Inverse folding.
């Protein structure tokens, strides 16, 4: 389950942009770097957006079987008034 | 009852009578022991005793036996299992303690002893002492070593949270996460965070989350409270479950001033549950901003580069250098033409020479040709059959037919006579 690491990818993207901006690369090299940069940008973006918001609570029955269901905080100002509903 | 004895008896007699009566009214050992016990229990119930612990014994029964002593005296004492289990700190020789309990007699041995129902270290709270002792022990074992600490993932996909579903901590954590990086998966493992069995539940939750494959980081904690309230997070079982967790653990117990053993073992200590929310996810808006800026720069650098290249191309195309190749080509073509011309001349010349040579040879050949001789009026004579020219009359005889070849045409004649 090793996913591309965001921090490493971002650093790589920064390096590519720096190179494109500062060094005098040949045109085909520039295009290759740009394509790589875009690929990394998309990967990074995907990492940020791919997970869905989901808050579950783990529940066990008397025989120790585990299931999960959605966990909701009550919309209330009372600190102690939220609980696992339903 | 001695008052009723007759006065006339001697001292010795009196004594004998005394003993006789006493011996007739004996106690069994059990009876007297029970009496002693009752007496001690009546007089020495619920008392506090200051003394130094020595000779601690902890047999398999779970009861703890020890001797309380001071400079001059010793007192045997016992802590029964149910009490011993509740003592947070470890009873050790040399420790000054205040023991609360009742004196009784252990009848089988006829020994009196203090049954301890509560014990406190002198000059320091039991919990503080327990904390110090466990901290020292685990430190020695290396549970707090920096080298063992795992990095917290920068962007976790799924976060396990071990806390009470009804406490302040979960609310704080969820609020902060929602504000910073809402689209993340969270699994709350609900546990008791204080009181009997809380430490076991917390430890079990951490262990069980480790059995799941998709949890990237665990937050274990609770909101603020008294030292007693937070105590579960100072228990060895919790410390060990955190240490053994393959998933990085962020501790989030109480407030900044509440340092717990869990905080020391955890891969990362959040000072409060809210801070745990900040440590566990980055601010997505900032990351998106960084990313978009990089994307813009990426695009700009490319378009800049392309524009530059195009300009350069145009410039280059118009430059002398770029035109030069055509010039050179033309020059080469010219040279080729010249060369070809020269080649042609040479060949013609060679051919002519050869031709001349050939006609010279042909002339020579011609002059040698017998046909030319014939042209000059000579003839060639051969036998009628065969074309070998005849150079003498020898071999010829009268009546043989011969052929005489002229420059043009020939005649056949018969030899009439031969003269040599």
């Amino acid at each position: 389950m090793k996913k591309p690491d965001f921090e490493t990818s971002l650093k790589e993207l920064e390096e590519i942009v720096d190179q494109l901006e500062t060094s005098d690369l040949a045109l085909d090299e520039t295009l290759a770097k740009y394509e790589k940069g875009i690929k990394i940008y998309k990967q990074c973006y995907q990492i940020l957006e791919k997970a869905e918001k989901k808050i579950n609570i783990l529940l066990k029955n008397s025989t120790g079987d585990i299931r999960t269901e959605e966990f909701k905080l009550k919309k209330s100002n009372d600190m102690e008034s939220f609980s696992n509903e339903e | 009852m001695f008052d009723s004895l007759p006065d006339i008896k001697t001292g010795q007699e009196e004594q004998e009578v005394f003993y006789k009566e006493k011996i007739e009214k004996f106690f069994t050992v059990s009876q007297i022991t029970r009496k002693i016990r009752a007496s001690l229990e009546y007089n020495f119930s619920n008392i506090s005793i200051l003394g130094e612990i020595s000779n601690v014994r902890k047999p398999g029964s779970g009861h703890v036996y020890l001797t309380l002593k001071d400079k001059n005296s010793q007192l045997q004492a016992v802590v029964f299992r149910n009490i011993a289990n509740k003592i947070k700190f470890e009873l050790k020789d040399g420790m000054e303690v205040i023991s609360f309990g009742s004196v009784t007699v252990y009848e089988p041995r006829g020994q009196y002893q203090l049954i301890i129902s509560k014990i406190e270290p002198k000059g320091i709270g039991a919990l503080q002492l327990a904390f110090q002792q466990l901290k020292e022990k685990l430190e020695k074992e290396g549970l707090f070593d920096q080298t063992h600490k795992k990095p917290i993932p920068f962007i976790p996909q799924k976060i396990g949270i071990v806390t009470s579903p009804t406490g302040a901590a979960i609310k704080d954590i969820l609020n902060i996460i929602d504000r910073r990086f809402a689209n993340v998966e969270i699994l709350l493992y609900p546990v008791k965070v204080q009181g009997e069995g809380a430490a076991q539940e917390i430890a079990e939750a951490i262990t069980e989350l480790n059995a799941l494959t998709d949890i990237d980081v665990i937050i274990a904690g609770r909101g603020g409270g008294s030292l007693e309230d937070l105590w579960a997070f100072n228990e060895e079982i919790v410390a060990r479950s955190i240490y053994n967790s393959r998933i990085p653990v962020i501790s989030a117990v109480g407030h900044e001033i509440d340092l717990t053993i869990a905080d020391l073992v955890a891969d990362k200590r959040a000072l409060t549950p809210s801070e745990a929310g900040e440590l566990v996810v980055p601010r997505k808006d900032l990351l998106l901003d960084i990313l978009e800026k990089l994307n813009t720069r990426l695009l700009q650098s490319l378009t800049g580069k392309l524009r530059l290249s195009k300009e350069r191309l145009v410039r280059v195309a118009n430059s002398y250098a770029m035109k030069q190749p055509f010039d050179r080509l033309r020059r080469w073509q010219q040279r080729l033409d010249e060369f070809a011309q020269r080649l042609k001349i040479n060949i013609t010349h060679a051919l002519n020479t050869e031709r001349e040579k050939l006609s010279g040879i042909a002339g020579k050949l011609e002059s040698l040709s017998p046909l030319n001789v014939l042209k000059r009026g000579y003839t060639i004579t051969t036998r009628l059959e065969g074309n070998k020219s005849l150079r003498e009359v020898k071999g010829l005889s009268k009546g043989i037919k011969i052929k005489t070849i002229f420059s043009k045409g020939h005649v056949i004649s018969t030899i009439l006579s031969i003269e040599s």
Q: What stands out?
A: The radius of gyration of chain B is 65 Å.
